[in-house]
Amino acid sequence: MGLSDHYRNLRRGISFELFPPKNAEGMASLEKTVERLLKFEPDFFTCTYGAGGSSQAATLDVVAMVRRIADVPVATHLTCVGSTVEELKGYLQRASQAGADYIVALRGDPPKGTTEFQQVEGGLRYANELVAMIRENFGDRFGIAVAGYPEVHQEAVSAQDDLENLKRKVDAGADVIVTQLFYDNADFYRFRDDCDAIGITIPIIPGILPVTNFKQIERIAKLCKASIPKGFAEELNRSESPEWQFKVGVEHARAQTVDLLENGVPGIHYYVLNQSGAAEELLDGLELAGAVA
User: Can you list the alpha helix ranges (DSSP code H) found in the chain?
Assistant: First the structure.
């Protein structure tokens, strides 16, 4: 099944994002997380890798693990950071051998300690170039997802500039758009309307990160300049109890999910931070075509 097919014919595709664990113990724990998430019949999993490709091998270990325990497609992230085109091709070959079905094609953030992206000699500078390179060298071997930013990418000079950059990625051969996290659905709807106005027609999948620890999510949101609604933040801050923050965060993510489904999204992508608890709680009893709890 092609990547965009997960969102066609009234399907509501669901996917979960993982990251590579640091050791064997972490991998064993992640395997249990994947097994628990399988009850929601996800359409696919994705796996990130560290800055500059520092955990590429571990990412492919996660891809192989998911393929071993589940008949579910898997996507690996791929960025332009620190890699030549030949190195990127080499990774794609290894990803294919590991069983990866899809690629999440990203420019990538500047490495730690730097503030600007630096193109390496023989490398690529923009995500649309990465999408084009994959299509040119691998044809339709991989489905390709690209990132969208409901609250505008932090380096974009304007919302219009950000949309035009996204359109270049789509025109280069992307199959779907997966958005960065957001906590106010109005930001997503505005972004979706803007994409429609500029002629983007591929599926746009909202990305949801349930809050389970407010301080942790504040750091993540600050890095990507995602806003946290005042009322939501005030409710979370009523108590530092982990149980309270988990409850409030999951209720908010569930409300986001229900509202998004009622407003016609083709699917939802969940950033689960290698834990299944929040996803299990918020998805319990919800029905999605192709993913029924």
Answer: 24-37, 56-69, 85-98, 127-138, 159-172, 185-197, 214-224, 230-236, 242-262, 277-283
